[in-house]
Design a protein that fits this description.
Blueprint lengths: L1 E3 L1 H7 L2 H16 L3 E3 L3 E4 L6 E9 L4 E9 L11 E8 L6 E6 L1 H19 L6 E5 L5 H9 L6 E5 L7 H10 L3 E3 L2 H7 L2 E4 L4 E5 L9 E4 L8 E3 L1 H6 L1 E4 L2 H6 L3 H6 L9 E2 H5 L13 E4 L4 H17 L4 E2 L3
Parallel strand pairs: 1-7, 8-9, 8-11, 9-10, 11-13, 12-14, 13-17, 15-16, 15-17
Antiparallel strand pairs: 1-18, 2-4, 3-4, 4-5, 5-6, 6-7
Helix pairs in contact: 2-3, 2-11, 3-4, 3-11, 4-5
The structure holds nicotinamide-adenine-dinucleotide (NAD).
């Protein structure tokens, strides 16, 4: 069995390998050769923690396993990341544990890769302005991954506490792109691609904010009750997702489904576009929306890629288990 510690991940796997792994597994999900098992997430009644696991099996890549982890709000005081996760991979032929992989950085990489894959397949080719809503831990990963997908000329961003946008501004400078902190109205009027990555229980981006032709990647809503965009915006858009079951229950679509303005049968798996089964965007005026809920198969895909790279580089710890 191999162990790939968290501290080794950054040097092993980057945005390109994560993009490839996530794009491939979305395609396998839509082709019904990979599927996720039901998500478990529980308040454990200790340390205020939320704990759970996401799991699945990809018959194409033979990735079987789970990501175990959650949120420990007191960790920051202990010098640790609040979100903690570990990925376990099992041999699909024998059930033996194949690898244990640090999952913290991989979670950010695979989440940003999902947004990037959606932009690659759904945004207008002539997109020039990228808008980011949010400035938390995930936001800089999103900015870096999505910025690579089109020839963006400018970044505009909004956050509830605008001073926290300094992190995004720094990344924009590294990328050589002008950066502006703007209102939601300005962001929606200017951006051709919008990523929302906040933890909110009420809509932030409204239907009226968003201009025709925009692609929106909603990445922050991964739990019942969370919401980033108005249900009317979901209803106006052509909606794509990683997994329909999660989209309607814990994803951004939960609200439009609940008020009846969105039908489950109209939600398209992004993998169908990757596989060429669905045309994706069909006009420059269409608003496309990707509801990125985050599936266990994404974690297994990037973890498996990291293990292969770690073995090839002689970094993986080989334990007789
Ligand atoms: P974080 O705690 O570091 O940052 C939270 C962000 O949300 C900040 O920008 C903050 O200003 C904003 N925010 C919080 N409450 C708000 C409110 N009421 N109104 C407006 N803005 C508010 O979180 P993070 O790690 O960057 O994660 C952001 C979101 O993405 C979380 O909801 C997280 O659960 C989710 N997430 C989703 C996936 C996925 O696969 N879809 C993966 C990882 C994280």
């Amino acid at each position: 069995m191999f162990i790939v510690p968290e501290k080794e991940i950054a040097a092993l796997i980057g945005r390109q390998d994560s993009f490839t792994a996530v794009e491939k597994v979305f395609a396998s999900m839509a082709a019904k050769s990979a599927y996720n098992f039901p998500v478990i997430r529980e308040a454990i009644g200790h340390a205020d923690a939320l704990y759970g696991f996401k799991s699945g099996f990809d018959r194409e890549a033979l990735n079987l396993g789970l990501k175990s982890g959650g949120y420990w709000p007191g960790n920051a005081e202990k010098g640790l990341t609040n979100h903690q996760s570990t990925i376990f991979l099992f041999d699909a032929d024998t059930g033996k544990c194949r690898a244990i992989v640090g999952g913290n950085l991989l979670t950010a990489l695979r989440t940003a890769a999902a947004a990037a894959v959606s932009v690659a397949h759904l945004a207008r080719a002539d997109s020039k302005v990228l808008g980011i809503v949010g400035a938390g831990h995930q936001a800089t990963f999103q900015l870096r991954a999505v910025a690579e997908q089109r020839k963006f000329e400018r970044i505009v961003a909004w956050n509830r506490s605008p001073e926290k946008l300094a992190n995004l501004e720094k990344v924009a400078q590294e990328l050589g792109l002008p950066f502006e902190s703007v209102s939601l109205e300005e962001l929606g009027a200017q951006a051709d691609v919008v990523v929302t990555i906040v933890s909110s229980n009420a809509a932030i981006l409204k239907d009226v904010h968003v201009k025709a032709g925009t692609h929106i990647a909603c990445m922050g809503t991964d739990t019942k009750g969370k919401q980033e965009v108005e249900a009317a915006l979901v209803a106006r858009a052509t909606v794509f997702t990683d997994e329909i079951a999660q989209s309607v229950s814990i994803g951004e679509c939960q609200h439009a489904i609940a008020d009846g303005s969105q039908k489950e049968m109209d939600i398209v798996e992004l993998g169908s576009v990757i596989n060429g089964v669905h045309a994706g965007r069909t006009s420059d005026a269409e608003v496309t929306l990707f509801d990125g809920t985050g599936v266990g198969l994404q974690d297994l895909a990037v973890a498996s890629a990291a293990v292969d790279l770690a073995i090839a580089k002689g970094i993986a710890l080989d334990i007789d288990f």
